[in-house]
Amino acid sequence: DVRGRPSTTQAVLLACAGTGRMSIKNRFWTHVPWGVDSFGCAKWTGCSLADVLKEAGVQPKGKQVIFTGADRGVEGGKVQYFQRSLSIEDAMNGHVLLAYQMNGVDLTPAHGAPLRLIVAGWYGMASVKWLTSIEIVEGGWWGHQMEAYSFRQAEEDTGRVPLTRLPVRALMAPPGCPEFFSRTRVVAPGAHRITGKAWAGAVALDRVEFSYDGGASWVQTELMDKNSPFGWASWEVTWTAQEPGTYVLACRAFDKKGRSQDLASDDAFNWTGMGDTQPQMVYVKVDPKFEEIGSHIDLTAEQRAAK
Questions:
Q1: Rg of the chain over all Cα atoms, to the nearest angstrom
Q2: What is the rounded CA–CA span in Å between residue 203 and residue 233?
């Protein structure tokens, strides 16, 4: 029983590999236009996968560990269970958990009850939910969910690169209120506190920068400490909008290894549209009439752009 084993609790950020796909204008997977908000950080409790494998006894020929979840479906025309694998070396890292609690309470079905994998510092698909079996095999293993979550330039690409560890990234909570159709944020002139989160997997963060002119210029924000080695950090900055008009807010992060986010580009492309880290762009309309209930604000240009 995993609950009878020594346990540990750690805050781990999980992010979907498709986070930010909407930023890629030339994308093949048009049916899953994920925005920037498919991420979250929770405190996970469980036992060490490495300890379980050591106790089971890994044979010298064992090279790959296959994890199977209970979720069954049809993808790529094939009936299958969700399966992912880790190399023995990655599986034996002490930070990989067999988790049964989230934020101090037992896992709910939506979060993988009764048992799930937590691979700290990796994209979320590696943390298999509803875990039913763990199998050690000789040689390599490359299932459908390994193929699906990889960088490639075509459906069949011999140079594909699997998505594994999280990149560095920053996101902000948009200020003001959204206009219904265009989703442009509307604020009154004045000082606005912009807050957000940043992460870089297991790597320490260096700084987060903020722009109010679509990336033409940048200022450094106040960056707090990460809540754990594999968690996230809060950041904030004060933006003073003096003049009415439309502004494009953006943010980007840098880590201690020198990594930064992708540059904004209309030409960015990969077959699955995954792993994008182009800076989040938030369109903001500054108008003094926003303070008056019942007043009219002209958002014609923003609505046309949204189409």
A1: 22
A2: 12
